[in-house]
Amino acid sequence: MKKSIILGCFLFVCIFTTQTIFSQSEKSDNKLVSEFISKKRAFNKEFSYGFRIQLYNGFEEEAKKTRGKFKIDFPETKTYIIYSQPEWKIQVGFYKTKLEADRALLNFKRKYQSAIVIPLGK
Question: Which CATH fold topology does 48-119 show?
C-alpha cells in the first residue's frame, strides 16, 4: 500500500514537472520580444519629447553668468535661458533619449556639479 502511494506521488511529480518545463519552453519567444523592443525604441526616437540638461535654477544675474561661462567651456552645445516666474533656468543641449542625455551629463558634471537631466514636454 505504501509503495503504491509513493509510486503515485512520484508519477504525479514527474508529470507535473515535465508539463511545466514544456509549457515554459513553448511560451518563451525571444525573437518576438526583441521585435517589440525594437518597435518601442523606434517609436520613442520618432515621437518622444526629448531631454535637456539643466545647469542652473535661480537668480537672473547668476543664470547669465553661468550661461556665459558654459558657452566658453562648451561652445558647440546650444544653451537656452528660460524664465519661469520667479526663477531663471539655464538648460543646454537637446537629446532624444535619456541615455544620450546621461552620457552628456557626465561631461558637464566635471565643471557644473549641480547639473541634472530634465525631460521636455511631459
Answer: Alpha-Beta Plaits (3.30.70)
In this structure, what are the phi and psi dihedrals at residue 40, rounded to the nearest 5 degrees?
-65, -45
What are the extents of the domains in the chain?
Answer: 2-46, 48-119
DSSP-derived letter for residue 97 is: S
- pLDDT mean over 6-34: 66
pTM of the entire predicted model: 0.61
| 79 neighbors 91 (Cβ within 8 angstroms) | yes
Radius of gyration of the chain (CA): 28
* DSSP SS3 for 118: strand
* Band of residue 66 on the pLDDT scale cut at 50, 70, 90: very high
